[in-house]
Amino acid sequence: DVQLQASGGGVVQPGGSLRLSCAASGFTASSYVVTWARQAPGKERELVATISKRGSTDYSDSVKGRFTISRDDAKNTVYLQMNNLKPEDTAVYYCNSQVRFVPYWGQGTLVTVSS
Q1: Which of 52, 80, 88, 92 could anchor a disulfide with 108, C-beta 3.0 to 4.6 Å?
Q2: Contact at 8 Å (CB) between 48 and 67?
Q3: In this structure, are strands 91-99 and 102-105 parallel, antiparallel, or unpaired?
Q4: What pLDDT, on the 0 to 100 scale, is given for residue 70?
Q5: pLDDT per position in the chain (115 positions), as tens?
Q6: What is the C-alpha R_g of the chain?
Q7: Exposure of 6 by Cβ count < 10 A (0-12 exposed, 13-18 middle, 19+ buried)?
Q8: CB within 8 A of 17, min separation 6: which ones?
């Protein structure tokens, strides 16, 4: 079965850092596009970072220069390194991939940025 397991969320002060992990199973992450998205309370889900099969990356303007998406092919895991976190980054973060034309979402991990 295809699964995406997100982890690494927590509470961090403004300016701090966190690294989220998305462990993929049932498929090879390097063969598909994998994305990180987030949803803040009362807001729509927002795509924040994408990594292609070739490893090229793209980011939303709101996180560009602060977040980095990467992939460890040996571990079949995609990461989201988040630096200089701001209160507006507070959200549930999800990883996603469309595998064989079916979209899959991880269960989400909560990131809270607060002093």
Answers
A1: 92
A2: yes
A3: antiparallel
A4: 98
A5: 999 999 999 999 999 999 999 999 999 999 999 999 999 999 999 999 999 999 999 999 999 999 999 999 999 999 999 999 999 999 999 999 999 999 999 899 999 999 9
A6: 13
A7: buried
A8: 81, 82, 83, 84, 85
3-state class (DSSP) for residue 8: coil
Q: Which two three-digit tokens encode residue 44? A: 């729509």
Q: How many CB atoms lie within 10 A of CB 75?
A: 12
The strand pairing partners of 97, in sequence order, are 34, 104
Closest CA to 70 of 83, 62, 79, 61: 79
Cα(16)–Cα(96) distance, rounded to whole angstroms? Answer: 25
- Please, which residues have CB within 8 angstroms of residue 12's CB and are 6 or more apart in sequence? 18, 85, 111, 112, 113
Structure tokens at 74: 């040996």
Exposed, middle or buried, 51 (CB in 10 Å: 0-12/13-18/19+)?
buried
